[in-house]
Design a protein that fits this description.
Involved in beta-(1-->2)glucan export. Transmembrane domains (TMD) form a pore in the inner membrane and the ATP-binding domain (NBD) is responsible for energy generation. The protein is of the alpha/beta class. It contains 22 helices and 15 strands. The chain is elongated and about 90 Å long.
């Protein structure tokens, strides 16, 4: 029976679930009460502004989810907002107002927004794309949509939009209650999801896309799903915005509106959900009172406010307040984590089976050959070191082994599977784990959250809750306990020392339960004691767990101590493949490291 024990930081108090729910519940109840009573206390002009502001704030939340949590700056949510507005306006203009028209318009708004978002995501988030590229694509979407609306003639109302159609016959006070409760429900749902295990996974995307990919997570697919869901919510906000105002105009889908949504999120505080709501409400109300009397000065004020916030409060106004609260001794977000050891993996049928098979591997950049004709085989239980001078192609070889798209020629097999031209997230599923040269972790997540993200393949994240139990395989558990990370589970990764970050990344990789482990200079910057601990861990992984370990390392003393075999790369070719004694005593290796020229003819193929 696996053992379970709480391993939170000693100064982290245990918290009962019920009190943690009472306070947020009371706050939601108070907010709902204010929404119900507010229409009785405010004049109609302000109520009108607040109704519109609530729908805009819902759209701002979707921008925050994409930018603040997924790390993709998007200007395209205005397009989906406009799609919702025009779905209602076109349906009511062409077919009148009625129950089936309302249902059809809602369905059309959601379907069209989802389809456009899926296509936009497919263009933006292909493997290897950059956040800048995705932002540019999102910028183009509202521009193209507005041009389509301008060209629609009487069907879309061209530049004048659609007005005068029959819509919902509700009192303005009722509209404020509905809009306010809709905003409250959206905010609560977003907060619940973003604070769940799924929300931590989205934050991991923002922090370190590459590490997510090498943990077997399909980051492109995940971002597309989030974009589609956000687009649907934004479209519904636009739908009711047009239903309240009785007008759908190109401005509702414009790039300018999309930029304003980004500004609202930046001012309020991205990655907070509540910050964008505050930013949207404040900007909409202030704009209604000041934009007409100070048309040009108002835009200048908004621009200056954005610059000041970016320079002085990069996390937004709410982010600055939250930071002060933490400094003042406010409670952290972490709770006691129950660390449980997973059942040991089933023993492999052949503990000495071939784990890595490389045949005629080459990597070329035009006429420049970085790797040429590299061939070798490694078995389970081997600790194989890859050495060579700087520029020999060691890290490039690691990339070619872990990413099927990297190599120019040749074949690579991992645990009996041909990796073909597969992306890293799919290669990882064959039993490969890769540790980078620089510790690659999720800086804003806690140690426990980093490890939980690493277990996504085995334990899918909950959508509305955060797991109190973290189950790790024996190898990962050993690293966590030996390094002392078990006492710092609730500490953010960015606060760890270099050595602990290296240990955390290794534990994350081992959480995949790999058969093949690729390590790129894992001891760089470690103390002597940390290097010795690392050596003991790697030796145990190879001998006890029968992992095949391929280690890139410059510390030849470390290599000599732990390796069962050494491969020497020189000028992109395999210069020597032999036992530790053969390589250490090789005259060829001495010539390579002393800088003497080694003709290609002398290098074994």
């Amino acid at each position: 029976m696996p053992d379970a024990r709480p391993l939170a930081s000693p100064d982290t108090p245990a918290r009962r679930p019920m009190p943690r729910l009472i306070v947020p519940g009371l706050m939601v109840a108070m907010a709902a009460g204010v929404i119900v009573v507010a229409p009785l206390l405010l004049d109609n002009y302000l109520v009108n502004i607040l109704v519109r502001a609530c729908f805009v704030a819902i759209a701002a939340i979707t921008v925050d989810i994409m930018w603040g949590y997924c790390g993709t700056l998007t200007f395209g949510q205005s397009a989906f907002f406009g799609i919702g507005a025009y779905a209602l306006a076109i349906m009511f203009t062409e077919y009148g107002f009625g129950t089936w028209q309302v249902c059809a318009a809602i369905a059309a708004a959601m379907a069209v927004a989802a389809a456009v978002a899926a296509f936009t995501g497919w263009l933006s988030f292909y493997p290897g794309s950059t956040p800048l590229y995705a932002s540019v694509i999102s910028l183009v979407v509202p521009i193209v949509l507005v041009q389509i609306l301008y060209s629609g003639g009487t069907f879309t109302g061209s530049s004048s939009g659609l007005v005068g159609f029959e819509s919902f016959d509700l009192e303005i006070e009722t509209w404020l209650r509905l809009a306010g409760l809709g905003l409250l429900a959206t905010s609560v749902l977003a907060l619940v999801v973003m604070r769940s295990d799924t929300g931590r996974l989205l934050a991991a995307l923002r922090d370190n896309d590459a590490r997510c990919t090498y943990l077997g997570i399909d980051t492109s697919r995940l971002r597309i799903i989030v974009l589609v869901l956000s687009a649907v919510v934004s479209a519904l906000a636009g739908f009711f915005y047009a239903g309240f105002g009785g007008v759908a105009a190109p401005e509702n889908a414009s790039f300018t509106f999309g930029t304003n949504l980004v500004i609202m999120v930046a001012l309020g505080g991205r990655g907070t959900v509540i910050g964008p709501v505050i930013g949207a409400l404040c900007m909409e109300v202030a704009s209604a009172y000041l934009a007409n009397s100070l048309p040009y000065v108002w835009e200048l004020i908004v621009g200056l406010a954005l610059i000041v916030v970016i320079l002085v409060f990069p996390d937004g106004l709410l982010g600055a307040v939250m930071r002060l609260f933490k400094r003042g001794g406010g409670a952290g977000r972490g709770t006691a984590t129950m660390l449980r050891q997973a059942a040991a993996a089933t023993a492999v049928n052949n503990p000495d089976a071939v784990a890595i098979e490389v045949r005629a591997l080459g990597k070329h950049y035009g006429s420049l050959s970085v790797l040429d004709g590299v061939e070798f085989t490694a078995h389970r239980g081997e600790l194989l070191s890859l050495v060579g001078p700087n520029g020999a192609g060691k890290t490039t070889l690691i990339r070619c082994l872990s990413d099927g798209r990297e190599r120019s020629t040749g074949d690579v097999g991992i645990a009996g599977h041909d990796i073909a031209r597969l992306s890293p997230d799919r290669v990882v599923r064959f039993g490969l784990g890769r540790k980078f040269q620089t510790a690659s972790v999720f800086e804003t997540l806690t140690v426990a959250e980093c490890l939980r993200v690493a277990r996504t393949h085995a334990d899918p994240p909950a959508l509305t809750s955060r797991s109190a139990t973290l189950e790790l395989p024996p190898a990962a558990m050993s690293v966590v306990e030996r390094s002392g990370l078990s006492e710092r589970l609730d500490e953010e990764a960015r606060n760890l020392s270099h050595g602990l970050k290296q240990a955390l990344e290794l534990a994350m990789v081992l959480s995949l339960e790999p058969d093949v482990l690729l390590l790129d200079e894992p001891t760089a910057g470690l103390t002597r004691a940390e290097r010795q601990s690392f050596a003991d861990i790697l030796t145990a992984l190879a001998r006890r767990d029968r992992l095949c370990i391929l280690l890139v390392e410059h510390d030849l003393d470390f290599v000599r101590e732990i390796s069962s075999r050494i491969i020497v790369l020189h000028q992109g070719r395999l210069a020597l493949d032999g036992s530790v004694d053969e390589v250490v005593n090789s005259e060829l290796v001495r010539e390579i490291y002393t800088g003497q020229h080694v003709p290609h003819a002398e290098v074994p193929a």
